[in-house]
Structure formats: C-alpha cells, structure tokens
Amino acid sequence: MEKISSTKNSKVKEWVKLKTNNGRKKFKKFLLEGRHPVETALEQATEYEFLIVQEDFDLGELAEQVDNDKLILVTKEVANHISDTVHDQGIFLIGYINEEDWQFPDDLSGKWLVLDNVQDPGNIGTMVRTADAAGFTGVVFGDGTADFYNPKILRAMQGSQYHLQLKRLNLEKWIRNCKDQGSVIFGSILDENARDYRKIDVPDQFSLIMGNEGNGMSERLIEMTDMNLYIPIKGSAESLNVAVAAGVLMFGLAG
Amino acid sequence: MEKISSTKNSKVKEWVKLKTNNGRKKFKKFLLEGRHPVETALEQATEYEFLIVQEDFDLGELAEQVDNDKLILVTKEVANHISDTVHDQGIFLIGYINEEDWQFPDDLSGKWLVLDNVQDPGNIGTMVRTADAAGFTGVVFGDGTADFYNPKILRAMQGSQYHLQLKRLNLEKWIRNCKDQGSVIFGSILDENARDYRKIDVPDQFSLIMGNEGNGMSERLIEMTDMNLYIPIKGSAESLNVAVAAGVLMFGLAG
C-alpha cells in the first residue's frame, strides 16, 4: 500500500487536474469524494484506479472490499489539497470515464430528460435524481451543459447515476435521431402561448428539454421540437427554479 | 449623507449582527443585499432605515427614489464586512421586521405551504418562490425552520416575499386553528402506505406540510394531519429533493 505525504507528488497533481473539465478529458478519469458516494460506487462494482484515504480514516467494512494494490494513504494536507469541499471526509476514488458516455444509445425508446446549457451543478444533480425517481430512461447532457463528472454534480446526484443512462451528446443530432425513431420531442419555455403541460396527450416515448437557468432553451432547439410546453404561473413569480420546473413536468408527464 | 469608512463604526457593528437570527430578534431589523433585491424592496415601498451603497456604486434611476437622509456611503472594506456573499454588489438595505409575521392571520382560507424544520436556505427560498407561482396564499415557517430574514433565503425568494404572506408560527397551533376553520391539513411522507397525491379530491382550502431534508416531518405533526400524501417513486432514487417534492405536490394539488 502506497503512502503519499507531498502535494507535489505526480499522482496528486493528476488528481487535482481531475477537478477540471480539461483534466478529465485528458486523463479519461474522474475524482469522486465522500464516504457515501464512494461506498455506492464500490457497491456498483465501478471500475476504479485508486481508493484514496486519509491516514486516520476508518475503512470499517470497506476494508474487505478493497484491493490493497489500489489503496493509497495520504496525509491530511494532501486530502485537503485534492478535495473539492471545505470539509472533506478523507475518502476519494479515482474512477474511469466510460467512452460510451459519448455514444448514442442503440435504443432511443423510453423517457429522456435533455439538458440544454444548464449551468448550476446542484440543479443538474437534482434533475438527474428526479428523473430517476420519475422512472426516466436517461438524461442527455448537451454541449453547453456542465460535465456530469463535475465533483459537485456527482455529489448532488446521490447515486442516481447508477440507475439511469447518462449521455453527453450533440442535441441537434439527438433530436434528429429521436424523430427518426418516432420519439416525440417536447421543449419547455416560459410562454403562455405554448401548450399547457396538463392538457396534452403524453406519448410513451419522448424527450423533455430543459433550458438554461437565466435564458431558457436555445432558439435553434425551440424551432426543432415537436411541441413546446409551459407551466401556468398563477401568482406573481416571474419563473420557477429549473430543477423544480423539471420535477413538475417530469411527474406531470410520466403520470 | 453620512459616510462610513471604519468597520468599527457602531452602525456597522449592528448591521453585521443582522446576519444572525439573534441579532435580527434584538434589533427587529434585517439586512438585504444585492441590486435586484434592493430595487424590488424599494418598488414595494418597504419601510426601511438605511440604504447603504459603496462609494463608487452607480445608483442610476434609484437616486430619484431614495431619501438622502437614509442614504449612507461606505468604503469597499465596510461593504465586504457587512456582506453575506463572496462578491458583494455594493448595495444593501436595512429593513424593519414586521411584527405581524408572528401573528395568526384572521383568515386561514386559501392554500398554505407549511415548513416543518426545513433547514437549507436555498430549498426554503425556492419553495416560497414555487408557492407564489402555484398561486398559494402564504407560507408558514414552523419553529425549527430557518428564519425568512436569513440573507440567503431573502436572495433565493427573488421577491416572492412581496407576493404572498409569510408567517412564523407554532405549527401545532396552526393545525388546530385550521381545523377549527374547516381547512384541511395534508402531511407529506415517504411511505407507500400514505395516499398517492394524484388520487385524492383536493379541497379549496388546505395546508401542505413539508418536512426536514433528512428526517422528514416530525412524528407529532404526522399524527395531527387529516391525511398524509406521498409521491410514488418509480425508479431507484431513495427520495426527492424537498423543494422538488414541494413543487410536484403544490402544482399537483393546485391543479
């Protein structure tokens, strides 16, 4: 079992880079942190490179599951350095990014949540968790949307990433492929002239597109949908939080 | 117009205390920050003690609305000191807390969202905004729930505090008073034996109680409701984010 006490160690330098989009692209790995997320990843038999724990960390039952060759002990200083949080829990996992994330699924049937340029990691993680709860097949991350290996998104998904498919794809191509396979594309917009989501016939197979927190869906995609939906606002609020709106629409459409 | 350049000024010391629950209780005032929240407060003709701006702040059209006796200029150092955010916008307002917040409304009719021991300021602000959008009459903050003059909650409400009634009340008394006036009390719990929210007759007047993020509603309140509702979870997620669950229920019940 390796021990690392310097933040200048080459492995540590690589781990820190995994906190960025570019670093993850370069090394095709991601950094997961926190006891519950790491335990869940190990339960799911995720392929991983290293399990990293702070010297005084009590592995408990995890000790039996872990391959000693993959276990690395680090000092508190190194743990703080690689952590993305203010108070880290002293446990990290280096996982491999799946090449299939960038490949179109063979089967586009089912219900898909599609994120067009959504920015906030908390909102994104919450939407993935809600899509899981609403029985959706998967979530498609469009070009402008934050990467789902972003450490904040990984935490906010709370394990839902293992229950549905996550894809990182070009959304124009997604829409064209869905239409080819007879799956309906719903946009969501803040416009009373759009269709009230409670007053439509919901097909078995569809994609629901949610747009950017401030600017909504991109114009190009709005034009490509089969139908654009809106949630009637009764009070004086100008809009809904995007994760709440996604929840209302997903449970409303999934019946 | 007064100018303050020291963080040791007695006014500055009071303002900093308004970031805490105890400070707000003592002085019966609250601190609001950011251009949009302050503009909205002024548009709503909120009673205020001071408008505080950093020296180089461009008031623009606000200049005409502001009473010069209430305007205080501060240095960048003082602005940083009183701010609750990492990057403050250089504008703050000191408002008066309304004594009516602690009084039962004469009329309990309509739809009320009731928060039992909800903790996260972002969740709370989002729920108030969603209650506004769903046409609710007001939101009741129970004893254990964060104070709605908490700066983070003020920001997250995005002005919805001016569109509906916010109350800080004892929830057991709230439930008894509602029952006396013929208003129905719905709890929300994670239990498949509770009633599916889509399969009930929804009355015109009701309260919907949302519980703590981790532990749900308190047992005492669960026993006092007329009916407890749940959202059927189809996938493998263990639960929904409380603000998403509140959104699904409020729009589901409000029709």
Automatic annotation (TrEMBL), chains A, B:
Cellular component, GO annotation: cytoplasm
GO terms assigned for molecular function: RNA binding; RNA methyltransferase activity
Keyword Methyltransferase among UniProt keywords: yes
Keywords, in A-Z order: Methyltransferase, Transferase
GO biological process, one term: RNA processing
RNA 2-O ribose methyltransferase substrate binding domain: residues covered: 31-101
InterPro entries referenced in this protein's UniProt entry, alphabetically: Alpha/beta_knot_MTases, MRM3-like_sub_bind, Ribosomal_eL30-like_sf, rRNA_Methyltransferase, SpoU_MeTrfase, SpoU_subst-bd, tRNA_m1G_MTases_N
PANTHER family the UniProt entry points to: RRNA METHYLTRANSFERASE 3, RRNA METHYLTRANSFERASE 3, MITOCHONDRIAL
Membership in a protein family: Belongs to the class IV-like SAM-binding methyltransferase superfamily. RNA methyltransferase TrmH family.
Name assigned to this protein: RNA methyltransferase
Source organism: Pediococcus pentosaceus
